[in-house]
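Sample pair:
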Amino acid sequence: MDYLEDERKKKKSTRSREKRKASDDKIEQLKNKNRCLEKDVDAVTSSVDEYAEKAEKPTNLLGCRSQTAYIGQPNRKPQN
């Protein structure tokens, strides 16, 4: 009887060890995924900041407007 009880305890401990290992692996996988997502968020945030700075800078829209105003009117030439 002692032999059977020992075998049951071994199987039980082996199962619990495997479950713990699987849980640890899953936790590590989620941590890695979280690190990757944080890196992506940082990259997107810096891109957004960069584009916001570009958008705030004054641009020469007058030149663009004058060029597009004369498209389709062959007799008129833009004044620069």
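The chain has one domain: 2-69.
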